[in-house]
Amino acid sequence: ICRELGPLMVAVICAGRSGAAFAAELGTMKVGEEVDALVTMGLDPQRFLVVPKILGLLAALPCLTILGDLIGVVGGMLIGSVVLDVPHIVYLNQTMLSLSYSDIFGGVFKSLVFALLIGGIGCFCGLTTGQSAQSVGRSATAAVVAGIFSIVLADAAFSVMFHVLGI
After folding, report:
1. Are residues 122 and 22 in contact, defined by beta-carbon separation less than 8 angstroms?
2. 122/160 Cα distance (integer angstroms)
3. For the chain, is the Cβ count within 10 Å smaller at the N or the C terminus?
4. Rg of the chain over all Cα atoms, to the nearest angstrom
5. How confident is the chain (167 residues) per 10-residue block, as mean pLDDT?
6. How far is residue 33's CA from residue 44's CA, in Å, rounded to a whole number?
7. What pTM did the predictor assign?
């Protein structure tokens, strides 16, 4: 859960929520010509609109991933105790024995890469929105689809890389 499933599930949820929100917000600003107004005033839209969103996601997604890992382990403990009659202390001891720092830090590192992908794709889709209200919806949908697809591809690449490195 800590290296594979936790970061992946949190990133997919975040892509659906934050990726769409970034695309919709920036797309609406593009339709309302607010982005053009920033350029006219000599301000860089990337600096004022994109960078804060990506930095916020870089700070939040690892924390959410750790929280998701904890919830996954506690959920496994509850299922193990209710369904399989495994005592809590036995479950926790075996979890501590089998869990390594590379699992935890590998998952957190993956969440940082996922945050960059989600934020970058969401902002890109928002800034390339057309000039109609319909295009804002299309951009939000495209951000979610492209974000989830890129997360799955990156996760597969990480799995291969971890296997080759023996992590």
Report:
1. yes
2. 26
3. C
4. 20
5. 94 96 94 90 92 97 96 94 92 92 93 97 94 92 96 96 90
6. 14
7. 0.92
For helices 51-83 and 101-127, give the axis angle rounded to 10 degrees. Answer: 140
Give the separation between CA 44 and CA 54, rounded to whole angstroms.
15
Lookup: tokens for 127 = 């800034």
Considering only CA atoms, which of 142, 150, 107, 114 is closest in space to residue 24?
Answer: 142
Mapped onto helix, strand or coil, the DSSP state of residue 128 is coil
What are the structure tokens assigned to 100, written together? 């390594």
- The C-alpha atoms of residue 56 and residue 133 are separated, in whole angstroms, by 27
